[in-house]
Design brief:
Length: 402
Amino acid sequence: MQNNHLLSVAEAFGSPVYVYDAEKMQSQYQRLTNAFSKVEKLRINYAVKALSNLSVLKLLKKMGSGLDTVSIQEVQLGLLAGFTPERIIYTPNGVSMEEIEEVAQLGVQINIDNLSILEQFGAKHPTTPVCIRINPHVMAGGNSNISVGHIDSKFGISIHQVPHLLRIIENTQMHINGIHMHTGSDILDIEVFLYAAEILFETASHFKELEFIDFGSGFKVPYKKGDIETNVEELGKKLSRRFNTFCKEYGRELTLAFEPGKFLVSEAGYFLAKVNVVKQTTSTVFAGIDSGFNHLIRPMFYGSQHHIENISNPKGKERFYTVVGYICETDTFGSNRRISEIKEGDILCFRNAGAYCFSMSSNYNSRVRPAEVLWYNGKAHLIRERETFEDIIRNQVIVDFE
């Protein structure tokens, strides 16, 4: 998106505001499908947790995507957005049996990552098709909080527990129709991913009625100019060749599935905030904005980097600024960043704000959450109104102490 488009959104809808570029989502989706064009059956399931706005879900449905969900509420959002149950996979962790059964009754594909739950579910619902999430014990991911395939992870059934897993399936006579893994986010080395894929192929060979193999996702996107990213084209060539060979050995064509979230929406997102104050201290120049980690928590939570630019003065002389928020504790978006000279009232743009940004926002400090806008076909479409104070107190029940 061009700066003048972003500035027009900030002027029309106020700040702070999230803006999503539909064209970028579409190009990322096409890039992934092109990379795996040699696979006869490919399924892309968008990871709803990255950005769950209903208009975004509808846009992805229009592209041909399915959905990857982790809660019954995400399943309900998908159904409300028009996805049929068979286009949704549900991969929870640590939820109750009641929630899993409720989702299964909706006709959604269940993905189980716990031996205890698998045995309970299989005993009660042996005819319901189930996918199994395997932990390949492969460490991948750019941060310990998003590396989910290592040996100490709470996610997945260990490959070392496959004999136990097979015994449960034999005893319950349950129907296993899919095998799944997810190693983590921000995968840099595709050879690590391919190594984990070999473990998944080996595990899949134990099951004779599979319909799909789900390789999760975790593709890294660039966060700054010149940043490295997952080479999905090379991965597509190598994994497609290996997958097709496995299908021949297996005896029939299976579906190759992925669950991208960040890859599809991260670069499509922009977060716009107004500078409230420029404050010079003895060693630092702070640019304080009309937002905080209540709206964009990733820099404080993950140490993630979001490129920040002053779109009100893009060609100004660069100076060093520490960009901070208005939350009443340490609330830093970026330290000592080179940004075009900032004046109070300027609009700063945070890039890569499409994934895990609005979806992790909160009302901390009793602040309202911002609006969301979709830039589609050259026009700005409001897809979520800015909250009001009434939204904050809507569900509170006041006790009468008299």
